[in-house]
Design goal:
alpha+beta, 2 domains, 381 residues, binds zinc ion, Alpha-Beta Plaits
């Protein structure tokens, strides 16, 4: 890609969006990986593609040499979306309305992948290289919590000096400098079944116990400390005339720091049943650790803000994101991570998901300048 025009970039985005890639559809995500692999090759990258594991699609890595050697930049992008195949033909067709371009996954995060690759292709086509080596890693299962790629992401992060994440920007274009941790807990109660008529007193209700646990769990929410516990799903019982033997609930926990995470984890794992005849099991499910802004992340942000200024636009500031990304893994390892470098838009995971066409050229140029100017010294502090 020689020209970084709005038309050329929008067409690059459209090609990403045209291939629907819901996480659970391995063939679909691998079609997306095929497209990404073509782009990596066109940007001069050496390809490493590993077959998917745990029922997910392939992990795709491209390595581009820099002007210098040594630990480089790891660029993370996930190629899966939450939208089932067919969304593009029905609820969320590709369309441009003024400055908005709509499509499944366009904001989260095909737009970000498209512009990052456009910047790398542009460098390659003009016979240049990034200053530091750049490794691009495309993740097939981020929307499921990256169960099959977490270990690979962490292994790559340890070998790199800087991590950039092309996830969507925050409101107005804010970059993400820290993220809350996210943990899912599964609660299960097992009671004693009984006929709800004549033998009601012999039963021990799993639902009744779960109801009390849910209140206890939700009471751990502390808005002042930005700790939230949300019982998002619950189910239980088999028949209305039976004292229920089973109930289960899933808790979605958001925590700002590792200390808060440990505190909440200890409280949840210490929960005990009110009714000694009912069994309670609490297990930790998928987990993304929190990461906080470090001086090195501040230096990355300040550098990006200065580059944006040279390019003639202002970043809208920094933010602590409530949602998780693969940046959680790298930031929590202590590798300086600047996230939210994708496109500006709104409506992730909805049928009004869109990006702002006006952000495409400036954001692509910002990538270009980051690749040209980032140095290990910037984050060495
Ligand atoms: Zn995302």
């Amino acid at each position: 890609m020689q020209d970084l025009t709005p038309e050329a970039l929008l067409e690059a985005v459209r090609r990403w969006v045209a291939i629907e890639s819901p996480t659970q559809d391995v063939a679909a995500v691998n079609r997306m990986a095929d497209h990404a692999e073509g782009l990596l090759r066109a940007a001069g990258a050496r390809i490493e593609r590993s077959p998917g594991t745990m029922g997910y699609a392939d992990i795709l890595i491209g390595r581009i040499a820099g002007e210098t050697e040594g630990p480089g930049i790891l660029l993370l992008g996930h190629i899966d979306t939450v939208h089932p195949v067919g969304t593009l033909a029905a609820e969320l067709p590709w369309r441009i309305d003024g400055d908005r371009a709509y499509g499944p996954g366009i904001y989260d995060m095909k737009g970000g992948n498209a512009i990052a690759m456009a910047a790398l292709a542009h460098l390659h086509a003009s016979g240049r290289r990034p200053h530091m080596p750049v490794t691009i890693m495309f993740i097939p299962d981020e929307e499921a919590g990256s169960p099959s790629s977490r270990a690979r992401i962490e292994a790559e992060a340890r070998r790199h000096a800087i991590v950039l994440v092309a996830e969507p920007s925050g409101e107005g274009g804010r970059l993400t400098v820290a993220r809350h941790g996210i943990a899912r807990y599964h609660l299960k109660t097992t009671g004693i079944p009984a006929h709800a008529g004549a033998y009601h007193a012999k039963g021990r209700s799993a639902i009744r116990e779960m109801a009390r646990q849910i209140l206890a769990v939700e009471a751990m929410t502390d808005y002042d400390r930005t700790i939230t516990l949300n019982v998002g799903t619950m189910a239980g019982g088999t028949h209305e005339n039976m004292v229920p033997i089973h109930a289960e609930a899933c808790v979605y926990v958001l925590v700002p720091t590792a200390e808060a995470e440990a505190e909440v984890r200890a409280r949840l794992l210490a929960l005990t049943p009110h009714d000694p005849d009912v069994k309670l099991d609490v297990t930790l499910g998928l987990f993304r650790p929190p990461y906080r802004k470090t001086p090195a992340i501040q230096a990355l942000y300040d550098h990006a803000a200065a580059l944006a200024g040279e390019l003639g636009f202002a970043l809208a500031g920094e933010r602590v994101a409530g949602g998780g990304s693969d940046g959680n893994f790298t930031g929590a390892l202590g590798v300086p991570t600047l996230d939210g470098l994708g496109v500006i838009g709104d409506g992730p995971h909805t049928h009004h998901e869109h990006l702002l066409v006006s952000c495409l050229v400036p954001r692509t140029r910002l990538y270009l300048r980051l690749f040209e100017t980032l140095t290990p010294a910037l984050v060495a502090g």
